[in-house]
Design a protein that fits this description.
eight-stranded mixed β-sheet; 8 strands; 32% strand; alpha+beta; 194 residues; Aminopeptidase
């Protein structure tokens, strides 16, 4: 299968490469600020976990899945690796896919990079599958991800109040989703809302 490359105005989503290893290890460093908003209640990764994740993502397999389970998010202007999009089965038996987005490099927060990455990823997943819906889960302590979902027309489908006690605070767990027909109405061009 050909390499996957999806481009917007700010970001390029592409297949992982072995040459991404060192940059990814740096971005996965437990001291990076993204760990405070992306599921911080799961704990800080160990050095071994960081190395394992980086190696797993950057090892090229001859048989890459279609659709891809994850793509690198890069700054379109200079090719710099800044994040990751992914999806996994919430329930394979019922065809329930859940997406993920992390902008690891905090210098790119608040500039529309995450919004564009999730727009491209959502469009890609709807185009490569027959899934009826896509969603993502986050928590109320991640206002950036909530804003991305709202900007793209995702609907808050679930809120589990006070479900996450972490770092001296109590947060809601939230799920945002979009149906295929909603996405198609929002995106007559097939590129997603801007």
């Amino acid at each position: 299968m050909d390499d996957v490359v999806l481009e917007g105005e700010k970001v390029r989503l592409r297949d992982w490469r072995p040459s991404d290893l060192r940059s990814l290890e740096d971005l996965l460093d437990p001291a990076r600020p993204w760990h405070t908003t992306n599921g911080p209640y799961f704990g800080t990764p160990t050095a071994a976990a960081v190395a394992s994740t980086a190696s797993e993502l950057t090892t090229t397999n001859a048989e890459r899945p279609d659709p891809r389970a994850s793509l690198a998010v890069c700054d379109l202007s200079d090719g710099r690796l800044i994040g990751r999009v992914s999806w996994y089965w919430e329930s394979r038996q019922t065809d329930w896919r859940r997406m993920g987005l992390v902008i690891y490099d905090e210098r790119y927060w608040g500039g529309g990079f995450g919004t564009e990455a999730l727009r491209l990823w959502t469009t890609y997943l709807f185009s490569r599958t027959d899934t009826l819906r896509l969603d993502f889960a986050t928590f109320s302590g991640n206002p950036g991800m909530i804003a991305v979902g709202r900007r793209l027309g995702f609907v808050e489908e679930g809120r589990f109040r006070r479900a996450r006690r972490w770092s001296g605070g109590v947060h809601d767990a939230v799920v945002y989703g979009v149906l295929r027909e909603e996405w198609e109405q929002l995106t007559p061009s097939g590129r997603g809302p801007t």
